[in-house]
Write a structure and sequence with these properties.
The complex is a heterodimer of chains A (about 170) and B (about 400). With about 170 residues, chain A is of the alpha/beta class. Chain A has helices spanning about 20-30, 65-75, 90-95, 95-105, 130-140, 155-165; strands spanning about 5-15, 40-50, 55-60, 80-85, 110-120, 145. Helix content of chain B is about 50%, strand content about 20%. Classes of the chains: A alpha/beta (about 170), B alpha+beta (about 400).
Chain lengths: ~170, ~400
């Protein structure tokens, strides 16, 4: 029987970038168009099968924006990784990548960081190009990928990549 | 009769008080051993957490509460007395209507001997959490809406700039041939004064229509400038009587063709006013032109001007169809035309009165209209005789 390991990971990003939708797509494989602001933290669990162990990802979906800065630090402590998300249709959400990455690294210096540009399905409204996204993500020490919680595009890939990079 | 004091055991009293408080405030607690296993809990602990696990005593707290996975180091810090507490606020549990908002707080059981174990307090703050969620939701939706509006405004501004560019280029391109048409028609009228009456009539039509097109182009250009706040006034001392006379002369041919009498009532000394003469001409021309256009054959248009110490009043009245209250309310709206105007054969853009109002206001003046169906209309413009330098 494979051993089971539990690890805490965080979802970070400005409000309304689609963090909760990404978790819902990954854990429950469904999508809801309504926007419901998260306050505090919602924790979901999803087992990811690795070669010789099962990794239970405990995903902390945290409130974004101003609401993160109030209590965020106490929540991210003890996380081994973070998926930092921006909204490809709102340029200002990319500017927050560095803030969340620094917050995460300040408390968890070895944390794995993956960056995601969500809402890739809204192609005509996209305002951030891939070159800028890759460049910023690399400079902050993480991989980047486009995602769409709505269509499911690369959502599984993003979390699998996160799981793969977590050292157990 | 005196009642002897109750002899309660202080520990029992504290336990009763704790139970009453936990029921009133939906709080629960658990005692954690130094190895972070659950030693004992309040009876409501599993209910508050909606725990599906049967027996929880003896299990590691991280198995019962995912919230503490990753927090083991912090819990050991408390046991070593290195930090006083760990607090997690507004932890969401459940979904939708059944969502609970819980606060967790872990402190040493004994502050003087923190390594003896930990006290985990769970507090249900759902009522407050739901209220806060509603506030945050509204705030975030407003921010998104504001952003959308800003972005839509930026796009509108961009389109407006394109429209202005298109308008000025078109106006320039249209004006050149119009000037030629009008100029040659005017020349032909001069050199062919003995031509047949029909020829002269047709040349007159060509000339007046080219002038009309020129005025429409001017209206559009003025409108564009007004909308962009770029209209500038070239102020100088103007003789209002002279401008009224010029307008009257320009309208005479059209008025004569429909047997409409234009009567002037102007004071004998010149009426000097500090204004932009071209814009003043446009104001008066548009008002008189409207009056002539919408007055039936054999009607009458009356232009009157008078002055007081500080202002000049200009009135243009007619005995045309008049307008209802509702029509008067919309008269100065952009592109508005009354039903009568639309039904009549008279062509119009609905720009004239809007531009008049804007130009009057640019001169810090005021325009009003009095009218009744079947009783004609009176347009009254008041303008200050002097304008401050910064206009």
């Amino acid at each position: 029987m494979k051993r089971v390991i539990q690890k805490k990971v965080c979802l970070l990003g400005d409000f309304a970038v689609g963090k909760t939708s990404l978790v819902r797509r990954f854990v429950e494989d469904r999508f809801d168009d309504r926007y419901l602001s998260t306050i505090g933290v919602k924790i979901s669990r999803k087992p990811v099968e690795m070669a010789d162990y099962t990794l239970n990802l405990l995903i902390w979906d945290l409130a974004g924006g101003d609401d993160f800065s109030q209590a965020g630090a106490s929540y991210v402590r003890g996380s081994v990784a973070a998926l930092i998300v921006c909204d490809l249709t709102r340029r200002e959400t990319l500017d927050s990548f560095a803030y969340y990455a620094n917050q995460m690294r300040a408390l968890n210096p070895d944390a794995v960081l993956i960056f995601a540009g969500n809402k890739a399905d809204l192609e005509s409204e996209r305002v951030i190009d891939n070159e800028a996204l890759h460049e910023i993500s690399l400079s902050l020490g993480g991989h980047y990928l486009d995602t769409s919680a709505k269509t499911g595009y690369q959502v599984e890939t993003a979390f699998q990549l996160l799981a793969k990079k977590i050292t157990v | 009769m005196s009642v002897p004091p109750a002899d309660f055991d202080p520990i029992m009293l504290a336990a009763h008080a704790a139970r009453a408080m936990s029921q009133a405030h939906r709080m629960a607690y658990a005692h954690l051993a130094p190895d972070l296993t659950i030693v004992q809990t309040s009876s409501n602990f599993p209910f508050l957490l909606e725990s599906q696990t049967g027996q929880i005593i003896g299990l590691p707290v991280t198995e019962i509460l995912w919230e503490f996975v990753g927090a083991e180091a912090a819990l050991h810090d408390i046991l070593r007395g290195e930090i006083p507490l760990l607090r997690l606020e507004q932890v969401n549990r459940g979904q939708g209507e059944a969502m609970l908002y819980l606060n967790f707080q872990v402190t040493p059981l004994d502050a003087f001997q923190p390594d003896r174990g930990l006290l985990l307090l769970v507090e249900d703050e759902t009522a407050y959490g739901r209220l806060q969620q509603t506030l945050v939701q509204d705030r975030n939706e407003l921010r998104l809406l504001k952003r959308k509006l800003t972005s839509a405004n930026d796009e509108l501004r961009r389109l407006n700039r394109l429209k202005s560019l298109f308008l000025s280029m078109s106006a320039h391109d249209l004006r050149a041939p119009l000037t030629s048409i009008g100029g040659y028609a005017s020349l032909l009228l001069e050199i062919m004064s003995d031509a047949p009456a029909d020829t002269l009539k047709y040349l007159g039509i060509i000339l007046s229509q080219s002038e009309q097109m020129n005025r429409i182009i001017s209206d559009f250009l003025d409108l564009d400038k007004l909308e962009q706040g770029l209209l500038s006034l070239h102020l100088e001392s103007c003789d209002l009587n002279q401008i009224i006379a010029r307008v009257s002369a320009a309208m005479q041919v059209v008025a004569d063709s429909r047997q409409i009498a234009i009567a002037l009532a102007l004071p004998s000394p010149p009426l000097y006013i500090w204004a932009d003469p071209d814009k003043l001409y446009r104001i008066i021309y548009n008002l008189v032109s409207n009056a002539v256009k919408y007055t039936p054959r054999n009607g009458r248009v009356h232009i009157e001007a008078r002055q007081s110490d500080e202002q000049i009043t200009l009135q243009v009245s007619d005995n045309g169809h008049g307008m209802s209250e509702e029509q008067l309310g919309n008269l100065f709206q952009l592109y508005y035309r009354t039903e009568n105007a639309k039904k009549s054969k008279t062509k119009g853009t609905g720009l004239g009165l809007y531009i008049v109002k804007m130009l009057v206001e640019a001169h810090q003046g005021h325009i009003s209209v009095a009218s009744k169906p079947g009783a004609g209309s009176i347009f009254t413009v008041t303008l200050p005789r002097q304008l401050p330098d910064n206009v």
